[in-house]
Amino acid sequence: MKKGKCLGLFISLLLITMLAACSGRNSGTKTDGTGDITVVFVPKVTGNAFFESANEGAQNYAAKNGFKIKYDGSPEALIEKQIAIIEQAIAEKARALSVSSLDAKALDGVMKKAMAAGIKVTTWDSDVSGDARQIMVSQGTPDQLGKMLVEMGAKSLNGRGINLDGPVSYVWHYSQATVTDQNSWQAAGERYIRAAYPSWQNVNPDNYYSGQDPEKAITVGEEILKTHPGIDLIICNDSTSLPGQAQAAKNLGFNAGSITITGFASPNSMRAYCKEGILERWGLWDCQIQGALGCYLAYYLATGKQLRVGDRVDVPDIGIVEVMPNTVLDSAAYTSADSGVVLLPARTEFTINNVDNYDF
After folding, report:
1. Where are the domains of the chain?
2. What is the pLDDT of residues 92-101, one digit of tens each?
3. Contact by Cβ (8 Å): 245, 172
4. What is the C-alpha to C-alpha distance for residues 95 and 295, in angstroms, rounded to an integer?
5. Measuring CA to CA, how many Å separate 167 from each of 163, 171, 231, 341?
6. What is the pTM of this model?
């Protein structure tokens, strides 16, 4: 009788266990807790078309792939705001963090603090020091992007009948002198100009900065045009300065026939200026994929997986990406097996012929 009772109890427990397992499989519930991971997604500034598009891409991707995004930024492009947001993420015991940094070094301390607290940390768009994060999702190498900026300008100058071998006056207008990505592109662009177009002249080698402030971008843009009324080319390697510079040109009666303006910004933010004839061409990369990938890799690390230089990861709906050494962006960069860079595969040049094919 005792044996019968024990056998019956054993069978009952076995059935309960099997039913519970089947229930978990059929419901699609993740029993390892990975479905509860939220990535804190920090832009340089909110309200900017580039960062809002990146957030849209990240949110849609996360919803499809089983994790959550908390988009947490400030409408003011201030380092202290980003530090406060990251400190809050630490206090709330976030599990993953993906940041576009306003400064190459100023966030290092708080990012290292986040990693020490067990938070998995990536950067995207604009980097911190290599020992202050695990993975950077970059839009391309400085040489790729610097050359792209210059050549977009050269194409439009040539279209205006300007001799590219003769004297061409130009300036750079972007956010600030401490932003990693934009300064690396500017430096690479200058090297490319010296090699390819040695007769060109930078009429303000100290550059123009507008602090990623939309109104200031217009004011600085007007200052450039008033100070250098005969300037040939303005390169805006910043998604706030480019629309601001275009608006400044429009305000002062310039158009693509009298001034060449180019740079990086989303197609949606520049479409009207293109169709109004204020500028001819500009470029960008798919910021929605970049935002999604930065967040996914933070999530991937937070699930307990490892990413080391040389690893290849098959990212759902994006494809295989490779973790490359930090030196792909800067030959003097920090090197470590657990700190690397993932490059986006492509960049896009926009003109009136293709701008309506894009919506971000």
Report:
1. 34-139+287-344, 142-284
2. 999 999 999 9
3. no
4. 12
5. 8, 13, 11, 38
6. 0.85
